[in-house]
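Researcher: Structure for this, please.
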Amino acid sequence: MSIALIRNMDTQGRIIIPADIRKETGIQSGSTLEIATEGATIRIRKCRSPFPGCKELPEFLEPLHRKIRCGAAICNAEYILASTGCFLPEGAMITPELRSLVLKQEEQIFHADMPTPVPDSRRTVSALFPVCLAPASKEAALLLIPETGRPLTATEQECARLVANMITRKYKER
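Model: Predicted structure, token format:
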């Protein structure tokens, strides 16, 4: 069933998503939503958690972010699974360019031609470290996303490499 309703936006830019639509789409309080534009159209979609174990992934990213003060994210070849220090919502689709790099499963440090993590992002990925999330999982990667124009230090790269190895070790044991 397709529902189309008209709603007014308040002075702070908020709209109410009607209960029928929330129920049909499974949107609840605290759900992550992606808001995107396509020309004059605004599209809102519920972001899904594509990896059942991704609730544990922020436990790896938070200490990394505190240590190196650099945005970090974990993605598979389709979606952002977790992020910290940069706005990349869980379940947001990654760019085709980044997808091809994740599928290579090679560590990469970018000095030029840095890929963007998600469409319409102003930030770029400076480093990609392959991770394994389960014995038979598809490709995934740890991404470093520093403030625009800031190069990564060797220490930051080594910290991220260590975290990527810890993630792989944890999920291979399952």
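Researcher: Any notable elements?
Model: The longest helix spans residues 154-172. The helical segments are 19-25, 58-68, 96-104, 154-172.
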